[in-house]
TrEMBL record:
Enzyme's top EC category: transferase
Lineage of the species this protein comes from: Bacteria, Bacillati, Actinomycetota, Actinomycetes, Micrococcales
One GO cellular component, as annotated: cytosol
SUPFAM superfamilies referenced in this protein's UniProt entry, alphabetically: MoeA C-terminal domain-like, MoeA N-terminal region -like, Molybdenum cofactor biosynthesis proteins
SMART domains hit by this protein: MoCF_biosynth
Ranges for domain MoaB/Mog: 211-356
Catalytic activity: adenylyl-molybdopterin + molybdate = Mo-molybdopterin + AMP + H(+)
Pathway given in the UniProt record: Cofactor biosynthesis; molybdopterin biosynthesis
Keywords: Magnesium, Metal-binding, Molybdenum, Molybdenum cofactor biosynthesis, Transferase
One GO BP: Mo-molybdopterin cofactor biosynthetic process
Family, as annotated: Belongs to the MoeA family.
Protein purpose: Catalyzes the insertion of molybdate into adenylated molybdopterin with the concomitant release of AMP.
Designated name of the protein: Molybdopterin molybdenumtransferase
Amino acid sequence: MPPVFQSRVGIPCRVGDDGRMRTVAEHQDAVRALLAPLAHRGTVDVVAVNAAALAGSRDVDRVLAADVASPIDHPPFDNSQMDGYAVRSVEAVPGRVFAVAARIAAGDPVCTLEPGTAAPIMTGAAVPVGADAIVPIEASIPDSFPPEEGEHTVEFSAPAIPGAFVRPRGSDLEGGRMLLPAGTRLGAAQWGVLAASGIREVRVRRRLKVLVLSTGDELRGAGDELESGQIYDANSATMAIGVTECGATVADVRTVTDDAAALSAYLASHGRSADLILTTGGVSKGAYEVVRDVFEPAGVSFSSVAMQPGGPQGLGLATLTDDAGVQFERPVVAFPGNPVSALVSFEMFLRPVLRELDGLAPRRASSLAYLAEPLVSPGGKHQVRRGRFDAAGAVELVGGPSSHLLHGYATSTLLVHVPLGVSHLDAGAPVETWSID
């Protein structure tokens, strides 16, 4: 009996009886192992903590490369939590009349409160020396601030409690303490606390650079006129955008013909610019498999994975030669050329690893759901279908299993997993789904 293992989608599967195809889990592990050294890519970027520069920039969504300590206390001084009067709590008892001192606005320097006086204070303003409580304006008599000109008095309807409505210096974080540790993903709140600390720039992890190559003589770019036998290239767009959504940078995206010499020349001049080379097409056993022809002699292995769609896969560390004749190595991940095969391969094998390397949550949100209709699947392969929830919350399939049905993929919100060893599921059967909307 074939050995049982736990797949990366959480459903028990079996290794194929013929022993020739990799399981999905085995290929996932192989991709992760190949790209693991990229986690230690060494260099970092320095990004300014500048709202104008960050607005609309991809630098917003970055990961800290080093710990950041706060240079100041948060808040940097005792300040008022609300509009009211700064008072000495031992004096502020109902019925006592206070002389109104000068107003204290946010941004005014710290002053001193004289005994027997109460100072009108605004939210965020520095609490004066001598005061230890704020009485809200609603608890004062009168319950509105007097004009700044002239002499005025105020009394309070309730006693003041020491520390009431005062934000103590350092109550959020003391200066010198850890503000954000290395590995923190920088979102709005994190950039905000960096700005509030007066930090001018931070060191962040350098983004991975990926070279995206879509191969095939039949491919043409959007807007080009198609001749007989030609199609528009979808894989350049899907792979480049997928890579970007994982936090990486596209070093270059290129549609390449089935000319091995031309591809080799391109790699010689551009291969060093990237940390990873991602290709689509040219990985099977046909007569014009340019990716296989160029990368297999360079050290990349090509094999079949027990998955539909996306069976043919290439993976390995390629030894290439640049224009100066100097050898260098780059990891290569090679997917099939049919657009759905490429997208499913990206989701199953590369997307989780790229996101993990950039500090993002690697997994798609998954859930167990129930089929609205029966399906059939090749028992020797892990099938990935496309689908969406119907009005009753059941999974309806969108399109068939074929690898060219890109429109069906584009109108789906779920990937539906049918594990290896299962050839038929009835309506109502449970399936694992990944949310892709």
